[in-house]
Amino acid sequence: MKKIWPVHYALGMAGIAVIRNWMAGDETAKACADELVRLTRGFTDDPALGFVLDIPDMEVRSGYGAWAETYDNLPNPLITIEEPVIQRLLDAIPPGRALDAACGTGRYTRYLGSRGHQVTGVDVTADMIQRARARALGAKFLAGSLDALPFAAGSFDLVMCGLALTHLPQVSGAIAEFARVLRPGGRAIIADHHPMAGFLGGSAIFRDKNGYFRNVKSFVHPHAEYISAFVAAGLEIRGCFEPVLTEALAASGLLFAIAPQAFLKGSVGLPIALIWLLSRR
C-alpha cells in the first residue's frame, strides 16, 4: 500500500503561496518563503510534520459504499462552498420532473422535493441509495450509472448532478445522457471539483466509519472538456460559477495548524468548485 506524507501537500501549498505573493512585497513574500523553508527543514525531524498515512485508492462503488455511513457527518469544505450556489440556482427553476443523478445520500433529492419537484434519484452505490431513501421520503430511487441512465428520452424537466463527474475518466458520456433524458428547454445543473483544485492535488479523501482514510479515485476535467461535451450533446451554457475557498474554510483544514501561512496565502481565493447551468436545445 502506498504511503502518503500529508506534509508534502503542505509543502506544495507553501510553494504556491510563494508564487502567488512574490510580487506582493518583502514582508508577505518573505513570510511565505520562510514557512516553506521551515517545512522543508523540519518535516523529517518533527513528529508533528512527519506523520505518514495509508490512503488507498478506491473505485466509485466500493469507495462510496465505505463513505456512506460518514458522508453526512464529517465536514466537507467543497460542499460548504458549492451548496449555496446550487440552491440559489434551483430556487429559480419552476417545479417539475427532476432527476438527481448520482444522488448519493440524497442532499439534493431532499432539497428538490422541498421546492415542489417530483424527484427521482439514481446512484451506482446501494448504500448511498439506502440513506437517500430514508431522508427523501417522497422520492423514487433507482440503481444506475451516469453513462447509461435507465430512463426514456425527454423524461425530465431538470437534471441535477452534484460532485460526481470527477470520478469518470471522461465526462462526455454522462453529459450526453443528461441531454438525452432532458426535454427540449429543460435545465441541467452540474457541480464538480474545479480543475484547478484537481491539478493542485485535490481529491475525494474521506474517513470511513472506523476512522481510516480512503480516497475515491478522481480525474481532472478542464473547462474545454466540459464545453466540448456540452456542444456535442446539444446543451447551451446559461451560467458558469467558480466559488472560491474562504479563509474560514482554509483555517478549518486538517493541515492548517502545521502551515497556517501556506494555507492562508496559498489557498484562500482559489476556485475549488465548478458549477454549470445549462439548457437543452
Main attributes of the structure:
alpha/beta; 11 helices; 22% strand; 7-stranded mixed β-sheet; 281 residues; 40% helix
Beta-strand content estimate: 15-25%
Q: Please give the alpha-carbon distance between the first and last residues.
A: 48 Å
Radius of gyration: 20 Å
Which regions are unreliable across 5 or more consecutive residues at pLDDT < 50?
Answer: none
Overall mean pLDDT score?
94
Total number of helical segments? 11
Q: Largest sheet, described in full?
A: 7 strands, mixed
Structural overview:
By secondary structure, the protein is α/β, with parallel strands linked by helices. It is 40% helix and 22% strand. It has 11 helices and 12 strands. The protein has a 7-stranded mixed β-sheet with strand order 6-5-4-7-8-12-11, sandwiched between helices. Strands 3-10-9 form a 3-stranded mixed β-sheet. Strands 1-2 form a two-stranded antiparallel sheet. It is globular. The chain starts with a strand and ends with a strand.
